[in-house]
Design brief:
By secondary structure, the protein is mostly helical. The protein has one domain. It is built from 4 helices and no strands. Helix 1 (about 5-35) packs antiparallel against helix 2 and helix 2 (about 40-65) packs antiparallel against helix 4 (about 115-155). The longest helix has about 40 residues, at about 115-155. The termini are far apart. The relative contact order is 0.14.
């Protein structure tokens, strides 16, 4: 085995990891684009977090293998899917949404550039912001469900 064949094999593995992570990210984003306003919102946020974490890992490894990110033209002005945009009735704490919105802007700036390490860091920030929101929305949904059960129980007694 030569150094070059080892390097080629490592880069091929990283490219496969990148392809897999990118497909997961695209699937998570598509789920938000096609989403009805339902209780699946927290899970979609969790799926987005996990997809971002996979992208982070892939691009950390890409950077370590000497690969660069290919800039996405116009990325700095890209908008997230509708249900993730400000002013659309997003459920969850406003403070966490501010962190999420900042993560979106940070990711957009990163993917407009060509530094794989910066892209990995931006996906890390996105993963954390989406995970925090997923947990908060789950808690809100649980409280709403508990309140609805109590209201139903009261109606049944009356």
């Amino acid at each position: 085995m030569s150094f070059h064949s080892d390097l080629d094999r490592e880069r091929a593995q990283v490219l496969h990891l990148i392809s897999h992570a990118s497909a997961g990210w695209a699937e998570a984003m598509k789920a938000h684009q096609l989403a009805p306003p339902d209780l699946g919102f927290a899970q979609r946020l969790q799926d987005l977090s996990e997809a971002a974490a996979a992208e982070q890992l892939a691009w950390e490894q890409a950077h370590a293998a000497g690969l660069a990110w290919r800039p996405v033209p116009g990325a700095e002005s890209a908008l997230p899917p509708y249900e993730l945009r400000p002013g659309t009735g997003r459920r969850g704490p406003g403070e966490l949404w501010l962190h999420f919105d900042a993560a979106v802007m940070n990711l957009n700036r990163a993917i407009a550039g060509n530094d794989a390490a910066v892209v990995a860091g931006a996906f890390s920030t996105m993963a954390q912001a989406a995970a925090d929101l997923a947990e908060a929305v789950r808690r809100e949904d649980a409280m709403t469900e508990a309140a609805q059960q109590r209201a139903r129980a009261r109606r049944e007694v009356a």
